[in-house]
């Protein structure tokens, strides 16, 4: 039996029992293809991480880079899967996709019991549809408010706890920096493009204002309410004032571009930006820190949207054994540890939050355990196969509002009518 685990790094017990689970290299070496969106250092990191699996099994992996936008990936994958495409063996899947693509993926519950036992139960649950474990978690995601420590100090300002404070402080710093000659400086950058990322940002504004989570866990459509209106009104006021007009086309990487070149006081982004911002060549290395996102209105609790990525094996793969073996390796403790240390990606294996190497390399990881454990899920579970449409209707209504096409109140009222139609007699 060929065992490919480099066990003993951090979780010898988990690693050994997973290895003992009997994942062996197939008799003849094969080439498997892995499709994944590319954000930050994703391509380079993937190639580094799969190397030990390739060496141990003799198999090779071809990486198929996809657009950064999760919405674009979803559209393409849905087409490929509907056509029964055998060319892609594994897909890197967003946390929200499981209910919509479940039938096209292989059930891994029997082979992944060691990973399941070592993981946060809620994350495993999010990838389990009708008792089938359709994707294995690679990392979880919960955003942070990034802020420039040096600039808060320069302007004698505190870390903002509310969106209203953030609005004021961003303006103060932006005005000061521009007066100092930095014409390109902005107060706050975030993700305003019309795509899934805007659903994440806007859900945070709405939920942190006490306006619910678009569709509640029991399936009730809750989005048309005064707190949600107030949240969107505040955010609309940012566009062209503390945030560049171009923010309406920004995804994660565009906001990171402005931030990491030193041209923004605050940024909303996921933990991957922490590792990149502290890289040796980064102009803001050591100058920033992170804090949970603010709360808003009269509400005093903040909200972070739950993100995260998984690996699924296609039902149409002609190399299922090798593909499953690769999925188990990528979701296992060694690969998760490497991703945490190099990219600050939050593990889904519980014990890694106590790992001293991770804490030393990326202090955000242990600090963010509580943030992701309290993160708000998007309504993909209650809306099932309709989630993508629910989300695209939501992000469109928000994008229209931010663009000045209709008021928040009118757009949310129309959204509610649309969602009611979509729901019909039930999701
Ligand atoms: C991050 C999250 C993912 C989310 C995406 C939106 O990649 O992990 O869940 O859908 O951002 O842009």
Short summary of the structure?
By secondary structure, the chain is of the alpha/beta class. The chain folds into two domains: 199 residues, 3-Layer(aba) Sandwich (D-Maltodextrin-Binding Protein, domain 2); 201 residues, Periplasmic binding protein-like II (D-Maltodextrin-Binding Protein, domain 2, 3-Layer(aba) Sandwich), CATH 3.40.190. It contains 20 helices and eleven strands.
Strand and helix map with partners:
Elements: H1 12-20, E1 31-37, H2 42-57, E2 60-66, H3 70-82, E3 90-94, H4 98-101, H5 113-118, H6 121-126, E4 128-129, E5 132-133, E6 136-141, E7 144-148, H7 149-154, H8 163-179, E8 186-189, H9 196-208, H10 226-238, H11 252-260, E9 264-269, H12 272-277, E10 288-291, E11 307-313, H13 320-331, H14 333-343, H15 356-361, H16 364-367, H17 369-373, H18 380-383, H19 387-402, H20 408-423
Parallel strand pairs: 1-2, 1-3, 8-9
Antiparallel strand pairs: 3-11, 4-5, 6-11, 7-9, 7-10
Helix pairs in contact: 9-10, 9-19, 19-20
The protein binds alpha-D-glucopyranose.
Alpha-D-glucopyranose (GLC) binds at residues 70, 94-95, 141, 196-197, 200, 252, 270, 307-309.
Name the descriptors.
427 residues, alpha/beta, D-Maltodextrin-Binding Protein, domain 2, 5-stranded mixed beta sheet, 4-stranded mixed beta sheet, 20 helices, 11 strands, 45% helix, disordered N terminus, binds alpha-D-glucopyranose
